[in-house]
Amino acid sequence: MVKLYDGGAYLVNGTEIIPESEGAKVEQLTGKKADKKEARKGTIAYGIMEAHNTAADMDNLKIKFDAMASHDITFVGIIQTAKASGMKKFPIPYVLTNCHNSLCAVGGTINEDDHMFGLSAAKKYGGIYVPPHIAVIHQYMREMHAGCGKMILGSDSHTRYGALGTMAIGEGGGELVKQLLCDTYDVACPDVIAIYLDGKPNPWVGPQDIALAIIGAVFKNGYVKNKVMEFVGPGVSTMTTDFRNGIDVMTTETTCLSSIWRTDEETHKFLATHGRADAYKELNPAEVAYYDGVVYVDLSTVKPMIALPFHPSNTYEIDELNANLKDILHDVEVEAEKISQGKAQFHLVDKITDKGLQVQQAVIAGCAGGNYTNVVEAAHALKGKSTGDGEFSLAVYPSSQPVFINLTKQGVIADLMEAGAIIRTAFCGPCFGAGDTPCNDGLSIRHTTRNFPNREGSKPGNGQMSAVALMDARSIAATAANGGILTSAETLDCWGDVPGYTFDGSIYEKRVYYGYQKGDEEKSLVYGPNIKDWPEMSPLTENILLKVCSKIMDPVTTTDELIPSGETSSYRSNPLGLAEFTLSRRDPEYVGRSKEVDMIEKARVAGKDILAEEPELQDVFAKIHTIKEQEAVKPEETEVGSMVYAVKPGDGSAREQAASCQRVIGGLANITKEYATKRYRSNVMNWGMIPFQMKEEPEFEVGSYIYIPNIRTQLAENKLDDVKAYVIGDDVKEIHLYTAPMTDIEREIVEAGCLINYNRNRK
Q: Which residue intervals define the domain Aconitase A/isopropylmalate dehydratase small subunit swivel in the entry (predicted)?
C-alpha cells in the first residue's frame, strides 16, 4: 500500500506521523507545543542544506558541493565551457567517468578522443578519471565518494546517493560549470516530503518493485516535483544498503530535486566495506520534524511490478497485468501509434500466447539493475535452468569491476553464463539506447532506469519501433527461467540467500587516475577532430522577435525527444554537429526552420540589412511599427531567434544539450505551460534562452512571429510576472507571457546571451 497524505505532517521520534491538522498530539507525545517553523529544521535534508548553504538565510540557498561527477557525454562540454569562462583548476573532487560512450562504436575515433580529452583534463586541472568499462558513474560515486552529510552534484539526472546519507542532485552542465568557477548552486529552499517506510519487503520483491510502486503513486500528480524525498521509518532498516541504493536511484523518475535516507549500522557497514568507515555518521530526523507531505509505504504489501511503455510511472502489478493482458496491452499500442505518428507499427497483443506474454529481450544493467544483490538474486533464479534457444535473450551488466570481480569469485557469473545469459562490462548503454537495441516490434524487459519512447534505440522515422518495460531483476530472472514468458518473481522460492560482499578496489588503484589537487597547468588538453568550441552567441537586445519553429501539444515532451540519445551521444563534443539532431524524432523539420532564423540573426550581428535578407520581415516590422510606442523600433537593433512551444518540456535527463542544441542554431526562448523539471529550465537559462510560460492556449502556429518589446529592461528590473507580447500575423494580436521567479544571476546570464558570455563579462 502506498498512501499520500493531504497536506503536511509532523514526524515525532521518527515513528509517529501526525497530520498538521492534528498538531495538538505533538504536545501530548513530547510535552512541547508543535512549532512548524522550528520543526522544519528537524529534517535530515534541512541540516545538510544548511551546512552547505553560503547565503545569509535559508530561503534562497546558495549551495557549494563537496564533489562532482560527469560521464563521457557531458564532461567535454562542461570543461570546454568552464575553460572558456576562465577556469584554471578543479576546486573540488571532480570525477570523470567513461560509461556512456564506452563502446567506441560510432563515428570512428570520436568516442575514444573524448576519453583522451577527459584524461588530459584530469591531468591539467586535477581531476579523477575512470576509464571505460571500469564502473558506471553512480556506482563509482557510491563506492568511492558518497558519505553521510555530503552533497554531490552530477551532470546526469540519476545522480542520487541518498541511501548513503548524501544529498545528490543531477543537473545540466551549466550548474557544474558554476561550481568549477567557485560559484554557487542557487535554488529556493525546497519542500521536504517524508517517504515513510513501514514493514519489510517480501523475499521475492526487489528495489525496482518498491521504486515503481512509489513512482506510480507520485509522478502524475507532481506530489514530490522539485522537492526532497526523505526516507524515514522503521522499514529503512529492513533492507541492505545495496538494496536501498536500487530504490534511491529511481527517485529521479518522480521529478524530485534530491533524496536523503536516515542512516544506520547497515549504512556504516557498506561504507566500512568500501574502506571509508570515517564517511559514516548517524542521520535521523529530530525528535519533532515537519514535512510538507508524507508518502506512506507498507513494504510488506508491495508486489512484483512492471512499468509498461512509455514511462516509469505507467505501473501495474505483474499479476494484474497478466490477468488483463489484452486490455492493458491494447492501451499501450494506442499510445505507440501516437508516438510513432504513423511512421512505424508496434504490437503487444500479438505477443500473447497460451502460456502468457512472450518477451523478446531482457537486460539487467547500470546503476539501478547491475548492483551486486540484484545480480546474485538473478543467478539464484537461473541456476541450473536455461534461457532457451529462441527469440528471447538476457544480458547482464555488473555495475563496476569490483562488483564483477566479487560475482566471479563467488561463481555467480558462471551460473548466469551456464543458463545462457550474456555477461558484459559496466556500461550505461542499455539505459539510453547505445546498447542492446531490441529487434523491430520487440519488447524488452529491463532493470534499468527509463523506458521513454525510443530511448532503447529504435527509430520510428525509419519505420522501426521497439519498446521497454521496466521490472526488477528478480522478475526478469523468473521470466528468463520461463523461456521469456512474463513471470512474477513470486512464483519462485529461491530468494534471500545473498552472501556477504567483499570489496576489491585493486582495479581502481591500477586503472583510475587520481589527480585531485595534482593538476599541472602546463599540460595541454588533447583534442580530437570532433571536439569543437562553442559558437558565439548574441547578448539579449531590448526588443526581440521570435519565430515559432516547432509547436508540440503533447502533454509531456521528454529530453529524449528534444535531443535524442543513443548514437547521437557520440556527437555531444561538437555543438553544431549535435544540433542537427534536435527534435529529429519529434519534429524533423525543426532544425531547418531554426537554422534559417539563425542566418537572419547572424546577418543582423554582421551589420547587414535583414529586411533585404529576409523580405517577409518587411511586412512583420511594418506591423510592429503599428504598435503603440514601437513606431521607431529598428530591425538592426532587434534580436531575432527561433522559439519552441511545448506544453510541458524537459521530463527526464539532465542533459544540457536539450537546451544548448536549440541555442546554437538560433533558439532564443521557449514558451510552455510549465517546465517538467527544474534542471531543464536551468539549462534553458544557462544557455541564454528566456523560459517563458503562458496560461492561455497558444493561438499561433509554426511560422508565426512573436514580438516582445522591452524584455531586457523587464529582465533587469525583474518585472516578469506579466510580459506583453504580440503575435504578428494577418493582424497584430496581444498575448501575455510570464516567467517563474529567476535569480539575479539567472537574469544576468540570459541578458548576456549565455553562461559563457556572462562569465567573460565578469573578468
A: 650-696
Q: Which of 344, 175, 207, 312 is nearest to 743 (CA)?
A: 175
Residue predicted with more confidence, 105 or 295: 295
Q: CA 137 to CA 755: how far, in whole Å? A: 26
Interval 73-93 mean pLDDT: 93
Is residue 612 exposed (0-12), middle (13-18) or buried (19+ Cβ within 10 Å)? Answer: exposed
Ramachandran quadrant class, 258 (left: phi over 0; alpha: psi -120 to 50; beta: rest): beta
Q: Which three cell numbers stand for residue 340?
A: 510513432
The kind and range of the H/E element at 445 are: strand 443-447
As to burial, measured by CB atoms within 10 angstroms (0-12 exposed, 13-18 middle, 19+ buried), residue 628 is: exposed
Q: What pLDDT is attached to residue 760?
A: 87
Q: Three-state DSSP class for 535? A: coil
Task: Please report which helix (H) or strand (E) contains residue 643, including its range.
Answer: strand 638-646
Cα distance between residue 603 and residue 638, in whole Å: 12
Alpha carbon of residue 337 to chain centroid? 26
Binned at pLDDT 50, 70 and 90, residue 573 comes out as: confident
Burial class of 479 by CB neighbour count within 10 A (0 to 12, 13 to 18, 19+): buried
Bridge partner list, 736: 724
**Strand pairing category for 128-130 and 94-97:** parallel
Are 708 and 725 in contact by the 8 Å Cβ rule? The answer is yes
Least confident stretch, 151-160, 175-184, 274-283, 552-561 = 552-561
Q: 238 and 200 in contact (C-beta within 8 Å)?
A: yes
Q: CA triplet 637, 699, 633: central angle to 5 degrees?
A: 15
Place of cell 576509464: 131
| Burial label, 734 (beta-carbon count in 10 A; 0-12, 13-18, 19+) | exposed
d(CA 280, CA 520): 33
Phi, psi of 113 (to 5 degrees): -60, -40
Q: What is the CA radius of gyration of the chain?
A: 26
Encode 484-507: b = buried (16+ Cβ within 10 Å), e = exposed. Answer: bbbbbbbbbebbeebeebebebee
Domains of the chain: 2-60+191-301 (3.40.1060.10), 65-185 (3.30.499.10), 305-492 (3.30.499.10), 543-762 (3.20.19.10)
pLDDT, residue 178, reads 95
Whether 656 shows a pLDDT value over 90: the answer reads: no
Residue whose C-alpha is closest to residue 447's, from 410, 397, 392: 397
Compute the Cα dihedral for 610, 616, 619, 623 and give only its sign. negative
- Residue 159 · residue 74 · CB < 8 Å: no
- For residue 431, the model assigns a pLDDT of 87
The Cβ of residue 749 has, within 10 Å, a number of other Cβ atoms equal to: 25
8 A C-beta contact, residue 709 and residue 632: no
The string of DSSP codes covering 55-78 is SSSSSEEEE--SEEEE-TTTHHHH
HSE-up of 410 (CA within 13 Å, CB side)?
A: 22
Residue with cell 505518428: 341
pLDDT digits (tens, 9 = 90+) for 363-410: 999 999 999 999 999 999 999 999 999 999 999 999 999 999 999 999
Burial class (CB within 10 angstroms; exposed 0-12, middle 13-18, buried 19+) of 182: exposed
Give the single-character DSSP code of 579: H
